[in-house]
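Rotation project, supervised by the postdoc (A.L.). Task for the rotation student: set up a whole-complex structure prediction and record inputs and outputs verbatim in this book. Inputs entered:
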Amino acid sequence: MSFTDVLLLMFGAVLVENFIFSKFYGCCPFLGVSEKPATALGMGMAVTFVMTISSAATWAVYYLILEPLGLQYLKTIAFILIIAALVQLIEMFLRRFVPALYAALGIYLPLITTNCAVLGAALVNIQKGYGFGASVAYGFAAALGFTLAIVIFAGVRVRLQFADPPRAFRGFPLTLIAAGLLAMAFSGFAGIRF
Amino acid sequence: MKEKLKGCLRQLGEGLFSNNPVLIQLLGLCPTLAVTTSVNNAVGMGLAATAVLICSNLFISLLRRFIPRQVRIAAYIVIISGFVTSVELLMKAYFPALDRALGLFIPLIVVNCIILARAEAFASKNGPLASVVDGLATGLGFMLALVLIASVREILGAGTFWGMPLFGEGFKPAIIFLLPSGAFLTLGFLIAGVQKICNIRDDRRKLEGTDPEKEELA
Amino acid sequence: MELLMKILIPVGVFAALGLVLGVMLAIASRLFAVHVDERVPEVLECLPGANCGGCGYSGCAALAEAIVSGRAAPTACTVGGGACAKAIGEVMGIEVGEVVRMRAQVMCSGTAEFAQKKYVYAGAADCIAAANLGGGDKLCPNGCIGLGTCVSKCPFGAISVVDGVAVVNYRKCEGCGVCVAACPKQLIALIPYDSRHWVGCKSVDKGALVRSYCDVGCIGCQLCSKVCEADAIAVENFCASIDYARCTGCDKCVEKCPRKIIWSARKQGRGLVISREELENN
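Outputs recorded:
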C-alpha cells in the first residue's frame, strides 16, 4: 500500500465510513459521554490513544501468533483479552509518567474496555487484510472520526438543553433524533468516493 | 413449584416489557441501531444474543463462588467471548447469508453492555435456574425491541416484511429509514412512544393517589 | 492424537497469552506504582458520595484527594456537614471546629402576583438564556426569572418554581451550593440551616423605583435596622441583609417591615418555610 492509499484510507475512515454515523461502532459512549464538549473531547482522546495502540498490538498477535498456529477462529477472545490488558497497562503507565494526561483521561479509560469501537477496529483490520502500517493508520483515523462525531454531537447537545420538547420526547428520544439529523449530514459524505 | 413458575413468568414479563433492555434501560445500542435494517437480521441478532446470554448467565452463575472479585469483569468477558465465538462459528457454518449480513456485530456481542450488565447485576448473585430464565427474558426483550425497530425500518424503508413485498409496484420506499440516520430517528420515536405510555401510566397513578413519589413529598 | 493437539494447542496458546499478559500487568503495576496516600479512600468513605460538585471539585473522589494533599479544608464538604468534617478530621488527625449546616434560600419574593413584567418571554426555558435578553422578563433587574435553571442543576431535587419564583424545599436541601453558582441573578444564598429569618429581596434600586414595579421589594427604608436590638440588620444599596451571627430571632423586624419581605417562620414548629403558601396558611 502506497502512502497515498493510506492517506485516502484515513480520510475515508474519518468522514465517509465514520465509525458512529455509518458503522454504529461505539454508540454507547457516543450517547453516554456527550453531555459536555470538554468531557466528549476527553473521551475521544482516550479512545484515540487506546485504539491506535490496540490496532498495532492486535495486528501483531494475530499475524505473529494466531495465524501461524491456525487459531484464527480464536481472535475475538484473544483481542478482547489484549485490549483489556492494554487499557489497564496504559492506565498505569499514564498515572506514573504523564499524570496530567491521566487526570484528563483517567476516568474514561476503564469505560474503553467495553467500547465496541476498539474491538471493532481490530476486527476490521483483520477482515480487510490491512498491513501493519495501514492497520495502525486505520485505527488512528477511525478513532479520530469517533472523536469528531462525539465532539460535534456534544456541541449540539449543549444547545438541546434549552429546548422545550413535548414531555414524551424529553431526554433520550430528543438526543437520538438529534443524532439522526447529524447522521443525515454525515451521510452526505457517502457520495464522495476516495 | 407453582410459586417458582410464577416467579419465572414475572421475570419474563420484566425482561420483555417493564424492564426491556433496549427501550427502558437503553443498553446495547450499537447492534440495535446497526442490524435493524431488516426483520430477518433482527431476529438473527436477537437469537444469537439470547443464546449467548443464556449460556453466559448459566456459567457465570455456576462459577460465581469461584471467581475472585477483583478479576470478575475480565473473567466474565472471557466466558462471554467463548460463547460468542461458538455462536459465530455455528452461524458461519449453518447460516452463511445471515452471518454476512450481520458482519462484525456477531463478534461484537462480546462488548454488548446488556450481557455484561446481566452477568454483573444478576447472574453473579443468583442461582443457575433463575439466571437462565433471566438470560432468556432479557434476550427475548432485546429481540422484541430489535424486531420492533426493524419492522418500522424495513416496511418504511424497503416496503417489505421479512423479504416479502407488502405493497404494489407503485410504492416508492423512503430509503432514509435504511440509512444510519433512519436508525437513530426510529429508535428516538419508539422510545418517545414508550415514555408517553409511561407518562400516561404515572399520571393515572397520581390521580388514583398511589404515586410513591407523591407520598414521599407529602 | 491429532484431535488432542487441536485442543491442546489453543489451550496452551491461551495459557501462555494469559500468563504473559498477567506477568506484564504484575510487573507494570510494580514498575509504574504510584504512591497513593492510604488516607484518600478513608476520607472518601467519610464523604457523602453524592458527587454533587458543590465543593468545586469534580466529585467526591477529587475532593478526597484534595483534602489529603492539603489543597482543600476538611470542612470543604457542605453537604456532609459537621459529622462528615469530624470524621475526616479523625482520619487526617486534625481538630475540626464546629461546622454550621447550611441551606439554600432564594432571596426573592416577587411572585407573578406581585412583580410586574416588562415583556412576554417565549424563548428557551432557561434563566441564563432569558437573562441575556434584557436581563429577563421582570421589570426588576434583580428578581427571580423563574425558569428553573437552579431546579435542573440541583442534585438533590430540592428546588421547584412556585408562582414564578424558585423555592427551596429545606427538607431536601443539603446546602451544597450548586444552585448558588447556577443562578444568573445571584439570588440564592447559603444561610445557616436553623436560621429563622431572611430578607426575601435583593433589589438594589431606590425605593421609589422598586415601588413602581414590585409590591414586595425592599425599599431600603431602614425601619428594620432601627428596630433591631441585636444590631443584626444592615441596609446597604437600598437593601436589607441579616447578619446571622448576631440575629437572635426576635421577630421585631418582621412585624416592622412595611413591605412584609422579612420572612419569619417562628410560628411553625420546625421554624422554616418551604413556600409562600405554607407561610400564609399558618
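Student's summary: The radius of gyration of chain A is 18 Å.
Supervisor addendum: DSSP finds nine helices and no strands in chain A.
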